[in-house]
Amino acid sequence: LFTHIDHVGIAVRDLDEAIEFYETRYGMTMAHREVNEEQGVAEAMMAVGDSTSHIQLLAPLDEHSTIAKFIDKSGVGIQQMAYRVESIDDVCATLKERGLRLLYPEPRRGTAGSRINFIHPKDAGGVLVELVEPAPGGMH
Ligand code: MC0
Predict the structure, then answer these.
(1) How do residues 6-15 score in pLDDT, each as one tens digit?
(2) ipTM over cut 0.85
(3) The pTM is what?
(4) Residues with C-beta less than 6 Å from any ligand 1 atom
(5) How many angstroms separate the CA atoms of 2 and 83, rounded?
């Protein structure tokens, strides 16, 4: 069903400070950075060595952001676990058949033009699971 760990998302208060920490302490390089208004986040993808997995640093754009809500409730730290898939439409259909609640009726736009959806954490052992179908020729 899933082909790779695409990224692990970490909620941070200040994106620039967090990027600097990952660069100077772990020697990671930033592969991509963008603002996703619909998701309410400013984000940076930090490459983990030569793998195609990333750490996604997520900062809230404002107090209504899901990331602001997460930080208020749980503090900074791991917010989500994202698996890469080949066909998000097929995977969502299969997961629905298996009784899991997806957050969106149709995939939305994620990092670098990817198509994304989420499994509700209440149906996934307390883990917010993101599904990512990379854009053709995208960053993955
Ligand atoms: C909430 N809960 C979580 C959680 N967020 N559990 C594990 N991990 C999380 N991240 C739990 C709460 O503790 C609570 O449990 C219950 O779920 C309801 O939470 P809530 O605080 O009332 O929050 P809601 O229901 O308003 O929102 C939760 C929900 C939301 C997962 C629906 O965060 C959401 O829509 N997330 C998907 C979008 C997202 O995360 N976007 C930011 C990343 P109790 O037991 O207290 O009832 S953007 C991104 O990822 C893009 C750019 C990309 O990668 O391409």
Answers:
(1) 999 999 999 9
(2) yes
(3) 0.97
(4) 9, 36, 39, 41, 43, 56, 58, 66-67, 69-70, 73, 79-80, 82, 103, 110-111, 114, 116, 118, 121-122, 126, 128, 130
(5) 6
